[in-house]
Amino acid sequence: MMPSAADCRALREQLSPFVDGELPASQRISVERHLASCPTCSSRVADLRAGSGLLRIGLELRVDEVDWRDFTKGVMARIAPAPVPFAERWRVSLRELFTYRRGMLATALAAGVAIIALAPVLLRSPAPNGYARQTMAVQSVSTNPDAHVAPVVMAGEHGNAIIWLVSHKHVLEGKAPYEESDGVDNGTSLPLKVDQERKKEGEL
Amino acid sequence: MTRLGSRAAALLLFASAVALGAEPKVRINAEVILASNNGNTIDPPALARMKNQFSQKGFAFTSYRRLSSEKLSLKREPVELKLPNQRTATLRLDAIKADVATVRVDISDLSSTTLTMGKEGSLFQFAGDHDGGQLILKLSPDHGSQPRHTASGISRPAEAVARELVDDSEPVPVDR
Asked: A165 to chain B: which residues are within 8 Å by CB?
């Protein structure tokens, strides 16, 4: 028995979903029954399938022409990250810190406590470097008795000082060392002019 | 928690070692200079200032040549400086009190000097004959290690020591 035109009109809207496999099972069975007895609708379904096939082939050809190598990169570049509020970022960071980094956090706290505890000790005893005085100063000079020399300290300006050695003979006789050279390793064998002012001060 | 405790203990020990293990030391420049009347060489030219200082004190050397220059870090252990005239200069940090370093300088078979370091000045220590001239050991502060704070030491000035060395009967009072 041939279906009526009204049946064909009622099913016409379902033919395209039928071809695309989008109909539920009950409707698909109903459409298949109708197609079995309706050459007109069968022909229309064949046309739809042919069109769909052509469309698929056409799209596949277009797809083959596209360079997909940087597709993902291009898509990702166009996706702008949604701005996360500052407070939210902090909350997430702290949650992660307290959840997964407890050991590190505890170590850092212990280090902080240790530094605070040791700070008075560290600040109280800095390594001295010995330069608190403004100028250098001679404290004492002594000579080797076997050298038979006596020291003379001549102070200059700004903490400068010359320590020279003269023979005992010069000291005892009160002579200026340049007047006589006795060959002693005392630095006086070469011309040494002693100013009279210094002699008055009793340095030699 | 045990591992955490051991970490904290190690940290405390390390900090304590750093705090307590700071051995006192003082940095000093030591130069060996040959003063003579052989020529008119002033090498390096900076020694012209030294020549001027020596001239003011009556020394008539015409040539000053620096033979060596070293930056020394003095601690309790003595540091030996070989001089070209077979003598040895031995430098040692005697003490640091109130951040004032006292250094002892021994020239072998010749003399021993004790001085306190300061930000300014140089000590020119006679160190024996050499090559027709006189060796002078110049000791001066290493400016790289100087602190910014001001002096607080009570050492005697060189003039007082000089007078005292000549007049053994009456020690010269320190007028500071």
From this structure: 110-111, 126
